[in-house]
Amino acid sequence: MTDTSPTMEVEVMYAELEKVWQFSMRLPVNSTVADALVIARQNVNWPNIEVKPDLLSVYGQAATLQTKLHEFDRVEILRPLLIDPMDARRGRVVKKAKR
To answer: For residue 52, what are the domain limits?
Structure first.
């Protein structure tokens, strides 16, 4: 007997400055971000990272572990910001003003 449950293709992605990890998989329809992360973590190439639930997105849109996925979605594991974007902008403005 074969399993004919409908599935969808999704991808889990994590990037650092020098390396990108991409894990493609097929999951049952109505799977969540949490389901995708469970499967991705089983890959031998999984990076040594802690996934923080508040740093997840699906194609750049904030997501939670309970977010339902759709065909060809990309789950993105985000890194914490090293510097506040407004502080970085102020620094650039000050630096430009000194020229």
So the answer is: 7-97
